[in-house]
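User: Can you predict the 3D structure for this chain?
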Amino acid sequence: MASPILTLDANNTYMPGSSIAMTCAIPAKLKPTITWTKDKTPLLATDRLEITIEPHTLVLSNVTVEDSGTYSCIAKIFGNDHVNEKRVIIESHKADCIDNKYFANCQLIVRANYCYHRYYQKFCCKSCSENEKLPKEVQVDPIGDGIRKL
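Assistant: Here is the predicted structure, written as C-alpha cells:
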C-alpha cells in the first residue's frame, strides 16, 4: 500500500482563532485503520478537535500557538504503518500586525475586553492577537487594514 496523502493549505501557517482542516486520503481499496498524531502523540476528539472517518478528516477549531507542531496521518494495514506528516505553524501575529500607541492604550483595551471593537482591533492588533482576544470571526490580514472578517 502507498503512503496516505495528507492535504492541508499550501502555506501551513495560521493565525490564532482560525480553523484548520486536514484530510487523509488512502490511495488503495483496502480499509486501513487511521490514527492521527501531533508530535508523535495520538490525538483524541475534544471540543476543539473533530475527527471523522468518512472521509478521514481532522478539524482543529479556534487554534492557539500551542497547536503548532507536526501532524501525522497513520494508516495501519496488515500490521504495517504508512505515515504522512505536515508541519503546522500558528503565528502569534503577523509582522505588520502592530500596536499603535498614539491612538490607543492597548494594555487597557485588552484588560477591558474591547478587542471586539473594529477601531481597537486595528490599532491594537498585536496585543489583541497575542492575548487571543480577537473574536473568532476576525483574523489578521496582511493586506489592507490588517483585519478581515470571515
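The domain at 5-90 is CATH 2.60.40.10 (Immunoglobulin-like). The chain has a mean pLDDT of 80.
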